[in-house]
Every structure is written in C-alpha cells, then in structure tokens.
C-alpha cells in the first residue's frame, strides 16, 4: 500500500447514510422534485490533499493543520492521502477529482508534471499545489513556504547567541525554496555579528531524520554552536550535544525545551482560507498564493521563545521586536537570495 486515505472525523455509518440521503436529495432536484435553496447552500465543499511525504513531515503537516482548521472554521469536508509515490500520484489525484472534490491541494514538487497534467483534464476542479513554478491557466494555482522573513529574524538571534561565531544550517537540498531560507538565516546572523561564519549541509531528501542528525553532528564537531534545523533530525543532535537550535515551519520547542530558542513558523491558514473562499464563490482562477505566506499576511512568524523568554538577553528581544515591526509595516524588506549557499 503506497498511500493512505483519511476521511473527515465522524465518517461513521451514520455519516455514510447521511451521504446517501444527500445524494438522493440531489437526484430529486434533477428529476424535478426540487430541493430548497437553503439545503443546496449547506452542501459542504469537498477538499482533498495529496502528499508525497508522511503527514508528520513539517512541510506537509502545516498544510494539513490549515486544512483541519478550515474544517472547523469554513465548514469544508476534508480527506487526504499521505506518502503517495510518484507512480501513484496521478491515480490518487484522479480518484479525488472523480469523487466530487472541488479543491485539490498538496505538495507537487516531486510530481510537478503529473499534477499539472491531471489538472488540465479537470477544468472545473480547482488545484492549488506547492510548486516552484508559476500557476497555469485555467485552474492550477501554486503556493510555497515564503518564510524567509522569520528565518532572517532567527539568524539575528543566532548571531547574537553564538559563542564560537560559527552557525550552521542542515537542510533538504539546494533548491530555491530551501536556499532562500538558509541564506536569510545566514544573512541575519552576519548582520547581528559580522564575525560569524556559516556552514551548510544538504541531505538530498525532504524527510530523512537519521541523515539530518548525522549531518548536524558533523557540523557541531566542526564548531557550530547554533544550528538551523531546516529538517527533522537536527534538533535531536543539538539536544545530545548541548548546543542551541532554531526549528523550522512549526513550533518544535517540545523536541528540546532547553535547546530550541525559536524558529520560523509557516502558517498555511491564510492561503487555504483564501483558496476555499474563492472556490466557494465560484471565482477561483489560476494564481500564485505565495504572498499569503509572508509575515504581513499572517502566513509566517516566529515561534514563541518558551523557556528562552527569560534566557534571551533583553537587547536581543528588543532587536527582534524592532525588526519584526519594520517587516510588518513594510519599512524593512528581507532580501530573497535563492543562490546555492557555500560553507565558510
């Protein structure tokens, strides 16, 4: 079994019977018996997600969390498939499209051509996928984790907290989506302390915690004492070796309360909420939803300091508060550098 399909909470026998009843009511409208407009309006929008990696992988987990929030706040019906291999991606997408799902989302990077091909065959379905390429008319929208701003803020903290003046980042692979995060982190660290040197490691995978841990241990051995855990596995190494860490995409303080200072959080709720709103209104068009991941839109921010609320020097917290305010009001812009970083 290459993937698993999860249906909304409460999909019991009673729920299934309710679906049969809804189908019967829809049929009655077609044959002329009729159905009240109010009942039609209450029909839930069916939204599906297709993920290449396991649901616990931070990137897809943030999309999943946002979709679950949309269930509660926007009344959608939600199902998803995780760990879908490229060979199965097309089949799974088509199953959802044929099953009445009007918005299909997920991570398309490894199955970019497949996702776009399927979308063309279902022009009445909205597709919104994580992608490093632009949207495609008429129905393929894109998004990405534009969290370089809080990555930069995290770098400022790293630059202030390092004692060895060597900070590091262990990341997935040197692609633009990843490069801009680790470059922003390094830029922040150097701004806070011009003597800082940055080291970078890429594990060649989006989800390989053991390999990420191994790369982190190697960096720590070389002198890194504050490390950006762009991938899972890095924080474990930081905890073992007693150095400081910056998490990524979600609040991961629980993995190392005395180790994780903070980190960029990617909040996909603004993106998902906008896509659902457009589909419900019948005005969805192919577009780039990337801006909804920026801090000013509420799509990204720094995780709470937790135990480091008392440990971080006051001047560091003041610096972060000042820079955050400047980013939010548009008076400071974090550079987007997608070039491949080189270790120093």
In short:
The protein has helices at 13-31, 37-41, 58-74, 86-98, 112-121, 148-161, 176-192, 209-221, 234-241, 269-281, 308-311, 314-328, and strands at 4-6, 46-50, 77-82, 103-107, 126-130, 140-143, 166-171, 197-202, 226-229, 244-246, 260-262, 264-266, 300-302. By secondary structure, the protein is of the alpha/beta class.
**Oligomeric grouping of the chains:** single chain
CATH class of the largest domain: Alpha Beta
End-to-end span in angstroms? 44 Å
Average pLDDT for all residues: 89
Low-confidence runs: 1-41
- Give me the secondary-structure category: alpha/beta
The largest sheet has its strands arranged as 1-3-2-4-5-6
CATH topology of the largest domain: Rossmann fold
Number of E strands: 13
Instruction: Specify the overall morphology.
Output: globular
Largest sheet geometry: 6 strands, mixed
Number of helices: 12
Annotated CATH homologous superfamily of the largest domain: Response regulator
Indicate the percent of residues in helices. Answer: 40-55%
Order of helices and strands: EHHEHEHEHEEHEHEHEHEEEHEHH
What gyration radius follows from the Cα positions, in whole Å? 22 Å
Number of domains: 2
β-strand percent reads: 15-25%
